[in-house]
Design a protein that fits this description.
Elements (H helix, E strand, L loop, with lengths): L3 E6 L7 H27 L10 H4 E7 L5 E2 L5 E2 L3 E2 L8 E4 L7 H5 L2 H13 L2 E5 L3 H6 L7 E2 L6 H7 L4 E2 L5 E4 L2 E4 L2 H16 L1 H11 L7 H4 E3 L8 H13 L6 H8 L3 H12 L3 H19 L4 H7 L5 H12 L3 H10 L7
Parallel strand pairs: 1-2, 1-6, 2-5, 6-7, 7-11, 8-9, 10-12
Antiparallel strand pairs: 3-4, 10-11
Helix pairs in contact: 1-7, 1-8, 7-8, 11-12
Length: 345
């Protein structure tokens, strides 16, 4: 069992919300993972996981230039666990947002820029939020790459870092191992993505349900990534739009191919080349997303929702829903409704 090491960089006037929330999420995920492993081991007659605690598989460290108290925007001080010179190996590094203009603070931490460059060259995943993204840009790590930041700083960011491909329409961007989040909410979605890559989808979903009333949008669907830019295949784009508008009907892949004037084999190939998934997988995803919206916003029965999104067999619908979200439609609705405020309570 490997130990995941998370580093949080500290600096003056940082927003502590970008520090505390991800830490709690990681700790909850590690506890869930260990609980699942213990149950699995007991079923197999093995007890190898009982001696483990969350801290055995997850190490969280705060890091800065020194161990002097650092005053946050909330007006309380934090002392770093370690310094840039003392420790260097991390799996994920977080850069919190700054309050107001970040340029003065950035100038106070020149050694951090080289440290970030060294971390990036190792392949360490670095996640910056809001104006914390300016540290990555200042280090030259975002030159020619997509990035985002807090909306209030778009104009200044473009002026200060003209070589960065600022994506104002996206709350998350990824370029290799560099991630930018526009807000703390977006950072929490990114943290769920990291948790899933390390502890698995079930643990990630559990963490979502623990901290948020809804199942968040999947990382790949809301993040601008270099390798997943909008595709130029207009025929396939038209089919995607048609599927979204008609996903509740009985859709044949042959009919879709006929709409484009392609053979079924050529259509499947073109669609996958453009979107990275098959047309059938795309249709199933659209249907489940439509069902999720209905579970959140209507009082329709699960049977009615299944029928409305194109499933006559509710058992098949339940299996497809659980495959996409790891929980059943009933469990999903219970999670959402249990945390909704009600005037009658």
């Amino acid at each position: 069992m490997t130990n995941t090491k998370i580093g949080y960089v500290l600096y003056e006037r940082m927003l502590s919300s970008a520090l505390s929330l991800p830490i709690e999420m990681w700790k909850a995920a590690a506890s869930c993972y260990l609980a699942e492993q213990t149950i699995s081991s007991e079923k197999q007659g093995k007890y190898t996981f009982k001696r483990y605690k969350p801290e055995n598989i997850l190490t969280i460290r705060t890091v800065s230039t020194n161990k002097n108290p650092i005053l946050t925007h909330s007006n309380f001080s934090i002392i770093a666990d370690t310094t840039f010179k003392e420790e260097s190996d991390y799996d994920v590094i977080y850069l919190p947002a700054l309050w107001r203009n970040p340029r003065l603070i950035i100038r106070k931490y020149p050694e951090m820029l080289q440290w970030l460059a060294d971390q990036a060259s190792k392949g360490t995943r670095i996640a910056a939020v809001g104006t914390g993204c300016c540290f990555l840009a200042e280090a030259g790590l975002l030159d020619g790459k997509p990035a985002t930041t807090h909306w209030h700083y778009f104009k200044q960011f473009t002026h200060d870092y003209p070589r960065v491909n600022l994506q104002t329409r996206y709350f998350l961007t990824q370029s290799d191992n560099l991630f930018c989040a526009a807000s703390v909410k977006a950072l929490s979605d990114l943290t769920i993505h990291f948790i899933e890559t390390i502890y698995g989808k079930h643990v990630a979903t559990y963490t979502q349900r623990t901290f948020f009333h809804e199942i968040r949008s999947h990382f790949e669907r809301q993040c601008y990534q270099v390798e997943n830019k909008p595709h130029p295949d207009e025929d396939i784009m038209q089919v995607q739009t048609w599927i979204k508008e008609n996903c509740t009907t009985d859709i044949s892949m042959q009919v879709l191919a006929d709409m484009t004037g392609m053979s079924l084999r050529n259509f499947n190939r073109r669609f996958k080349n453009a979107t990275d998934i098959s047309p059938l997988q795309y249709l199933l995803t659209v249907r489940i997303e439509s069902a999720i919206n209905m579970l959140q916003s209507t009082n329709l029965t699960i049977q009615e929702i299944a029928s409305l999104v194109g499933y006559q067999d509710i058992a098949h619908f339940n299996r497809q829903f659980k495959q996409k979200t790891t929980i059943s439609p009933g469990e999903y609705r219970k999670t959402v409704r249990a945390k909704m405020f009600c005037l009658n309570n």
